[in-house]
Please model this.
Amino acid sequence: MENTTEEFPDDGTPPGARMAEAYSVIKGAILQGRLTPGERMSQVKIAERLGLSRTPVREALRLIEREGLVTSARARQVVISSTSMADLDELYALRIKLDAMTVRSFVPKLTDADLDEMLACLHDMEANASSESFDQFDAAHRQFHMIAIRAAGPRHIAYSAQLNEHAERYRRLYMFQPNAYSHSKAEHEAIFAACKGRDGERVACLLAEHYARIALTIVAQFDPQYEPQLVRSALRLVIHDLGGTQGGMAAARR
Model:
């Protein structure tokens, strides 16, 4: 805290690379729950716990704070941002509106190579469909969802990827619910089938319903009194604009 001198030996790695490593390790620890939501820690303690050098940790935390995963506190301490139903509601509403409208435009342009890659992701997800293999499952899951939108442009991709990453903390809550993996498998297979048919509008509806179902399931499990207005509004917007399915219409009205 008071002592900011670098205590770890310099191994010759460029400072930028060390900062990038610290960023990746710290962010991963937050998203995976190894740094607990609401926990207050000094920069020194974070460096020690994760086996990192202090200077790149300080720089990495500045970037991570911009993403909203930590907040600064006194005496060089940071607070790991808490999960909450309000954050879940905002996060998934943004994902519904951004990703659903994007796949509508870009799914018709998917190549056979894109579809092969999506299918490989599905196989990886199925091979890791257990809580013990969640990290492997989620890596394939994130990639699956990014393939259909990666032609949208760098700004769009970066923001969507960030939302996707931040949703990991909530996906962990969802995927540990009974039958979550089987439901997820069916939904992703339906999304893939619509992608294979280059049906952008159907993919948009299925994707919006998929995201909304995750959010609504978590709310029902952990805080049934909370009203996820943003998610419901975003789902209604997509369903109304695209025609939607019966299930999506019902979810939007509830």
About this structure: The chain is about 70% helix and 5% strand.
